Amino acid sequence: xxxxxxxxxxxxxxxxxxxxxxxxxxxxxxxxxxxxxxxxxxxxxxxxxxxxxxxxxxxxxxxxxxxxxxxxxxxxxxxxxxxxxxxxxxxxxxxxxxxxxxxxxxxxxxxxxxxxxxxxxxxxxxxxxxxxxxxxxxxxxxxxxxxxxxxxxxxxxxxxxxxxxxxxxxxxxxxxxxxxxxxxxxxxxxxxxxxxxxxxxxxxxxxxxxxxxxxxxxxxxxxxxxxxxxxxxxxxxxxxxxxxxxxxxxxxxxxxxxxxxxxxxxxxxxxxxxxxxxxxxxxxxxxxxxxxxxxxxxxxxxxxxxxxxxxxxxxxxxxxxxxxxxxxxxxxxxxxxxxxxxxxxxxxxxxxxxxxxxxxxxxxxxxxxxxxxxxxxxxxxxxxxxxxxxxxxxxxxxxxxxxxxxxxxxxxxxxxxxxxxxxxxxxxxxxxxxxxxxxxxxxxxxxxxxxxxxxxxxxxxxxxxxxxxxxxxxxxxxxxxxxxxxxxxxxxxxxxxxxxxxxxxxxxxxxxxxxxxxxxxxxxxxxxxxxxxxxxxxxxxxxxxxxxxxxxxxxxxxxxxxxxxxxxxxxxxxxxxxxxxxxxxxxxxxxxxxxxxxxxxxxxxxxxxxxxxxxxxxxxxxxxxxxxx
Length: 629
Description:
The protein is an all-alpha fold. The protein has helices at residues 2-21, 23-47, 53-70, 83-92, 95-100, 104-107, 111-123, 140-145, 147-161, 167-185, 190-222, 224-238, 244-256, 258-263, 266-282, 284-287, 292-297, 301-310, 330-339, 341-355, 361-378, 384-391, 397-434, 440-457, 467-482, 490-496, 500-509, 531-545, 550-557, 567-579, 585-602, 608-628.
């Protein structure tokens, strides 16, 4: 027995020494064989998009064999290579796939030049919209035959569409996908099970990808300082008992990962994040202060990152005051501010955030910005406290939080009372009024993004309601990043140039663009005819499929034009507002009522086309009335 125990210890020690000597063994050991193969599948799918899964299989086997060799007691010299170099050598080993994926010039390079070439090729890859990732009862036979192959096919298709998605995030998504398949394929009513779970799954995926993208937009648009401030809010809210200096240290290291992660360098991104998490979890004096972080540190290596990213806030320390009295602490604050402005602001954000886990990031950052302006004005004066009090008049953090909570609760009531269609239409009309110059498709996409985001989180008891404001901010950041706001109008361009903490509030405060006049007479683009009935039937089928989803999932399922609103009705409202930007809510309501009445009537008729033709004059009359108003 003792001999067996000693042998086991010797083998573990030898394996540990081997892992310390090469990166590939470390990943192979942490991820285990299946996880290791899946990580390589993610990387290969993202870089070799013009390939089949069968064509990637030999490369994955090659990587697996190398990983096993590197963890053996006789690792080869290749095991000591840089991990990026090892991955690129695997990619470049197939001349056929290299040619087909236009990577020949990259494979002829070496070192950093080859890495840069690979990243450039991946960034230029157009989105692949042909893949269908929906779950259905018809997929169960394939899943039951070999669930690993089935989930591998999901990873392959998903990564071809999301070439910048984090490998660890992809594996978390795949794990959830496999769990849904496992549950529903064992259910007596498979399709109902899928219909009830699909919306929540898709909402989770979209939220995870949106957060990753939003972080990169903040990093690229505003730089390290704003990203540090944003991360400082998040960490301080979740770990209110951990000292400020420790939080700042972790945040600084975390922000360093943004450069490789947002560039698409997933190998370096994974390495840096893994190292950071290991360092944090190894600090027992830190982990022992926490509840949720301590639980995440007990998870396996591949699950830790996702666990930490989604963990709930710990309870506040006993004795922590409800609010931070800036005036009472102004001497210390100004002393710290004069020595190191960034450190002092980090400490202020920490003190505000740990007291207000219910707040959104933008409210705290806006308050911190106002305070910074006050410090610049007052810290050199004798009566610092009075000066700061005067400068901060009208800037009440607790009141701002309370008012915003009230606003979002009102939105939740609006959604509950009016349903998905009315809620989506509300945002479409709002955005059309403030930027009528934008194309219909652009407005439809913005309204859909914001209304869908709100529907997913407004009634989600798992998060504070102001998490919705965080998600709306991310959606608006995406809009400002993707489009050219200056080509829409001056007021939206001005908001998109605002400070990060003020951009959302600026867009929210925008009024109707009263100066808008269409360059030429607006031609109604909606064609009334039987096609409306066909589209309506398809929408009804989709709604029926989601009927078993429940309230939260049902809200998340609305992914059509303005998330639930009839796209044809939206087109009619768009044309009406473009004809008269001052059209009232009552006039728009009349347009909607006439449209819905005509569609309801004509879709029930045998000769639908003739019915719509007879109803057309009613629409023309409404258009004339709206323009003349």
